[in-house]
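2024-03-11 09:14:02 INFO worker-7 job=invfold-0412 stage=load source=structure_tokens
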């Protein structure tokens, strides 16, 4: 498993450590969970953007008619 040297501001490290301890997980696990959530959210947003782009391209004429009627 690769390792990463992560530099955190003191206040963020303290807050993250406290939250991890309160949740009875290691700081490493808490950071992995947060990063996994971030990656999943970003990937989903990219898929939604691609779907919207495809929809917009496929329905450009209809969207133009709607804009023109306003």
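2024-03-11 09:14:09 INFO worker-7 stage=emit residues=70
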């Amino acid at each position: 498993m690769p390792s990463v040297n992560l530099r955190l501001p003191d206040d963020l490290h303290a807050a993250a450590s406290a939250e991890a301890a309160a949740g009875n997980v290691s700081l490493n696990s808490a950071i992995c969970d947060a990063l996994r959530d971030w990656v999943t959210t970003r990937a989903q947003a990219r898929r939604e953007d691609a779907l919207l782009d495809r929809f917009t391209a496929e329905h450009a004429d209809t969207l133009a008619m709607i804009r023109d009627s306003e």
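2024-03-11 09:14:09 INFO worker-7 stage=report msg="The chain has a mean pLDDT of 96."
2024-03-11 09:14:10 INFO worker-7 job finished
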